[in-house]
Amino acid sequence: MAKTVAEINEKIKQGKAVVVTAEEMIDVVAEQGAKQAAKTVDVVTTGTFGPMCSSGAFLNFGHTKPRMRMSRVWLNDVPAYAGVAAVDCYIGATEVAEGDSLNRQHPGEFRYGGAHVIADLVAGKDIAMRAESYGTDCYPRRELESMIRLADLNQAFICNPRNAYQNYNCAVNLDKHRDLYTYMGVLQKNLGSASFCSAGQLSPLLNDPYYRTIGIGSRIFIGGAQGYIFWQGTQHDPASTRSENGTPTGGAGTIATVGDLKAMDPRYVVGVSMYGYGVSLALGIGIPIPILDADMARFTAVRDEDIVCPIVDYSRGYAYGERGPLGQVSYAQLKTGTIEVEGKQVPTTPLSSYVRAQEIAGVLKEQVQSGQFLLTEPVETLPSVDSGVKFKPFTERHLKARTRTLKEVG
């Protein structure tokens, strides 16, 4: 008989729930079979830790005296978006500090950006804030300079449009003469290196490939705090090609997440400088998956050797869309340290930390076992393979002449 989330939560409250990590579930299903494992295990915990560019945070500073409608804001010289309200802003993870060479001296170092501001706030460090305004009758102040820290803010919550990609590319470089500086790291020329970014068998969405239990309203571990999924992530593409076990063979699903910055741990929120590319935020996310039935037991026992990703050339294939993948490779092969691409042995490098992903799955396991972390049932599921949702490329159209009338101008 299938279990419910409510029944599992009751067992958690009574200290009777059986909780294992996604790694441990592999052995449980191998020994007991999926049907019996579904009876034995109540929750499987997952984890991932790696760069997640599509991240950022909303901050509320409180009102100054006299009051100010902040129209431009900088935090440690990183521009934040102030088109929200008088004393709110959104600091994007990939925004780069003013004065950075921005690859004019290539490759740029991109030493500091929005991700570092977020990480420094979580670490309790002082941040230099500057703000400007055009001034109004109700908000007369025009300039502000002050030190701030996270404890000074009224609200500070991370709000990320796209996290925890279900699967991703293995990036290589076919150019024979030039290294490439990408968001997948430095790719050495002439197939000198291969870069990948996924926790594979521990990754949350690979353990629930059709999003049966992970959806809007799901409580998650994010940056060391408890947060939530609030929508499908941008570029969510459930129609991606899938293996027989249900896992996608490329990008596919994503989640939009939110969480209280004040409750986060700097160990799981880290600013990253990508040499020659830009700035990103390395973030830790974990999701507990309720084992409702034998299908969920089987999904959560997925192994690295059963998950494949495309090998993509970033010199022409990704950047210019001139050719498809060079092949597919499993995460088990990637984790050996070498793969074969077009007859050549290529060393592999992970962008994400599997060790930290294991740690997150373990911490989450302890929190669920101790009753600190209860599961939530999604108020709505994420679009799955039968939803008709498909990620579309940009469609360029000619600009239309646009003339504003006096009435529009006011």
Keywords:
single chain, about 400 residues, alpha+beta, 9-stranded antiparallel sheet, 26 strands, globular
Give the strand content. 25-35%
As a percent range, the share of helical residues equals 10-25%
Largest sheet: 9 strands, antiparallel
Overall 3D shape: globular
The parts where pLDDT drops under 50 for at least 5 residues are none
Termini Cα gap: 66 Å
Total number of β-strand segments?
26
| Structural class based on helices, strands and sheet pairing | alpha+beta
Report the total helices: 9
Mean pLDDT: 96
What's the gyration radius in Å?
23 Å
Can you tell me about this structure?
With 410 residues, this protein is α+β, with helices and mostly antiparallel strands. Helices cover 17% and strands 30% of the residues. The chain contains 9 helices and 26 strands. It has helices spanning 5-13, 22-32, 34-40, 114-122, 294-299, 317-320, 331-334, 354-369, 406-409; strands at 19-21, 43-45, 48-51, 56-60, 72-75, 78-80, 88-92, 127-132, 143-148, 155-163, 170-172, 180-182, 185-187, 194-196, 215-216, 219-222, 225-232, 255-260, 269-274, 278-286, 288-290, 308-313, 327-330, 338-341, 344-350, 380-381. The strands form 6 sheets. Strands 3, 4, 7, 10, 16, 17, 18, 19 and 20 form a 9-stranded antiparallel β-sheet that branches. Strands 23-22-11-14-25-24 form a 6-stranded mixed β-sheet. The chain has a 4-stranded antiparallel β-sheet with strand order 6-5-8-9. Helix 2 (22-32) crosses helix 3. The longest helix has 16 residues, at 354-369. The radius of gyration is 23 Å and the shape is globular. The N and C termini lie far apart (66 Å). The relative contact order is 0.20. The model has no long low-confidence stretch (mean pLDDT 96).
